[in-house]
Amino acid sequence: KFSHPALVEVHRVWEQNSTAYMAMRFYAGKTLRELYRGSAGLDEQAIRRIIEPIFDARALCGRRYGRGIGL
């Protein structure tokens, strides 16, 4: 199991009827699209605050498991 503040917590993954499913934790808040549309665009600082933790999580996955996660 892997846990990082920038990643969605996945509770369960399974396949049924030739379809893959994931049960994930629900996080309240705005989507990136809503943030972008609601502020007439995002400035560089706002983008960095959003993106840097995601890249940190990718790097940590790479170090821990020998592979990264796709975006």
How many DSSP H or I helices? 2
Q: Order of strands side by side in the largest beta sheet?
A: 1-2
**Gyration radius, rounded:** 15 Å
Beta fraction: 15-25%
Q: Point out poorly predicted stretches.
A: none
Helix content: 40-55%
Mean pLDDT: 84
N-to-C series of helices and strands: EEHH
Largest sheet: 2 strands, antiparallel
Shape: extended
Number of strands: 2
Structural classification: alpha+beta
N- and C-termini, Cα separation: 19 Å
Helices, strands, pairings?
Layout: E1 10-16, E2 19-24, H1 32-38, H2 44-65
Antiparallel strand pairs: 1-2
Which features characterize this protein?
single chain; 41% helix; extended; 71 residues; two-stranded antiparallel sheet; 2 strands; alpha+beta
Q: Would you write up a description of this structure?
A:
This protein is α+β, with helices and mostly antiparallel strands and 71 residues long. Helix content is 41%, strand content 18%. A two-stranded antiparallel ribbon has the order 1-2. A hairpin with a 2-residue loop joins strand 1 and strand 2. 0% of the residues are buried.
